User: Which sequence fits this backbone?
């Protein structure tokens, strides 16, 4: 069976046993050398601020302590670990993070981070195409919770306040967000045996609501990976006139 697995896919990961560690070391060294050259060639006439032989015994001691400490982490990287959705990061993502964290650019606007802004636009365009949109706009948030907050914030400011509905297996951030944004009320709706939002229970809740604002549909719930009946929710949307938000932070790429 292993022969059927595409080999080049595993070239993009360090590997559960660190099989690609030597290759990874070479790539990391290339990233560091490239950044060192960038610094060395910027304003070449400047004198160096460092004197003597570089190195810090204290730093090395603390690094050794730190490396020992991280061994106590859970084995998120291993394919046998499935308690949470945290998985092995790819080599390209680690290299990209390392390459840019050494210069620490600001991504708030093009003026402060022109390169990362161009990358953000490229990523958004890729996501639009992946979802089948011919045009659109978006930006990258720092994480799922902030993205959820922006979604409620935008819906509230556009449609006015009201009730937000989400299933009882939805991400915990939804309740906190509703409180932070002063949402009139929220309703945790029961799920069925497959951990999908119960459409009958959702409709009952919609009927009782004075003003339904938004329904959150899970495309991969945090705890169970369940996908709500999107088509069924869209049918309810046509009758109860709410904003539909699909939380695809977990399952969107699948």
Assistant:
């Amino acid at each position: 069976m292993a022969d059927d697995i595409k080999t080049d896919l595993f070239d993009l990961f360090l590997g559960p046993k660190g099989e690609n560690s030597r290759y990874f070391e070479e790539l990391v060294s290339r990233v560091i050398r490239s950044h060192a050259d960038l610094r060395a060639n910027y304003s070449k006439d400047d004198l160096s601020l460092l004197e003597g032989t570089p190195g810090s015994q204290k730093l090395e001691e603390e690094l050794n302590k730190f490396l020992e400490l991280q061994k106590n982490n859970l084995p998120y990287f291993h394919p046998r670990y499935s308690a949470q959705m945290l998985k092995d990061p790819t080599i390209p993502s680690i290299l990209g993070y390392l390459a840019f964290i050494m210069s620490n650019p600001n991504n708030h606007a093009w003026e402060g981070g022109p390169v990362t802004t161009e990358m953000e636009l490229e990523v958004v365009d890729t996501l639009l195409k992946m979802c089948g949109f011919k045009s659109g706009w978006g930006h990258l948030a720092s994480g799922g919770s902030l993205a959820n907050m922006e979604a409620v914030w935008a819906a509230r400011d556009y449609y006015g306040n009201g009730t937000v509905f989400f299933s009882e297996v939805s991400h915990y951030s939804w309740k906190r967000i509703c409180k932070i944004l002063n949402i009139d009320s929220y309703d945790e709706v029961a799920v069925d045996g497959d951990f999908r939002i119960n459409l009958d229970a959702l409709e009952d809740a919609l009927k009782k609501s004075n003003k339904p604002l938004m329904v959150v549909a899970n495309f991969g719930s945090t705890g169970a990976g369940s996908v709500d009946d999107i088509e069924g929710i869209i049918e309810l949307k046509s009758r109860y006139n709410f904003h539909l938000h699909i939380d695809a932070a977990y399952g969107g790429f699948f």
Q: What stands out?
A: The chain has a mean pLDDT of 92. The longest helix spans residues 21-40. DSSP finds nine helices and four strands in the chain.
